[in-house]
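User: Could you go from structure to sequence for me? I need the amino acid at each position, not a summary. Structure tokens:
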């Protein structure tokens, strides 16, 4: 059966214009699992920065995890953790969106009542503290989160997430949206063994973060290339001039976005960029 999409690895047309800004997701797109950005990918991204090509990484990872995974990148690479809740340029925090204490308390109580872990991201005033509220230890969170018995302080929260089986995602997502109304939204990311739902301010979304960044840099979204792999990348992929998927992206996404390059395991993004800018 013929594929609905075309896999392009390093075969970049000679007449393809070079984007004014390179942007990418991190987890599942640039790195696999809990690994630092691979050497070849880091070399290509750092070379782009040295050559004056603005480069931004927009990720669902929290602040500390983002710094951990990108520590071998040039500090001039712009980092936008938590789907754009935060923006860092040259190591300086440029913006931060928060969830007010009242709404944070409502979503906290709902998740606790239905027995799901409540994963909390605190902002600059709390030195970007990360922790989760749950009755048991969760091994997959232990690397960057501290478990606590209950949430006392609901100030300075930049995001609230939960980890749950994919089977229950739709029901929980709809109920959270019903609780919070239009001022907030719920971001859904599917992984192999479970799914993430993250509650963020309504102005937090990868495409909105990139739009704000482009406005500050005076770059059109039409002049941006963006690489992604998961559902939280769809909105930004629809808005940029050059949307690109890695081969391990969600199958449903390949029906909409036709340019598919090598997988994360193959460092497809780095190979594509190397061919595009230096081939």
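Assistant: Here is the amino acid at each position, in order:
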């Amino acid at each position: 059966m013929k594929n609905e999409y075309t896999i392009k690895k390093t075969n970049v047309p000679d007449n393809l214009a070079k984007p004014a800004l390179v942007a990418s997701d991190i987890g599942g797109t640039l790195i696999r699992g809990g690994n630092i950005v691979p050497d070849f990918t880091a070399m290509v991204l750092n070379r782009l920065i040295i050559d004056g090509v603005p480069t931004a990484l927009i990720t669902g990872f929290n602040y500390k995890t983002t710094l951990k995974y990108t520590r071998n990148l040039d500090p001039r690479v712009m980092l936008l953790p938590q789907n754009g809740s935060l923006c860092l340029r040259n190591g300086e925090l440029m913006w931060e969106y928060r969830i007010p204490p009242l709404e944070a308390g409502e979503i906290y109580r709902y998740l606790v009542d239905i027995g799901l872990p409540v994963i909390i991201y605190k902002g600059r005033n709390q030195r970007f503290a990360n922790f989760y509220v749950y009755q048991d230890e969760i091994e997959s969170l232990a690397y960057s989160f501290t478990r606590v018995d209950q949430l006392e302080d609901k100030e300075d929260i930049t995001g609230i997430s939960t980890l749950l089986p994919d089977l229950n995602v739709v029901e929980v997502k709809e109920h959270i949206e019903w609780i919070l109304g239009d001022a907030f939204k719920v971001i859904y990311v599917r992984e192999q063994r479970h799914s993430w739902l993250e509650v963020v301010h309504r102005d937090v979304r990868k495409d909105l973060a990139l739009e704000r960044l482009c406005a500050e840099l005076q770059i059109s979204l039409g002049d941006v290339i963006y690489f992604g792999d998961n559902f939280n990348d769809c909105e930004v992929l629809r808005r940029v001039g050059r949307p690109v998927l890695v081969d391990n992206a969600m199958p449903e996404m390949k029906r909409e976005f036709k340019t598919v390059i090598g997988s994360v395991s193959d460092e497809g993004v780095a190979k594509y960029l190397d061919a595009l800018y230096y081939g």
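One structural detail worth keeping in mind: The helical segments are 39-50, 63-69, 101-113, 169-180, 206-217, 234-239, 268-278.
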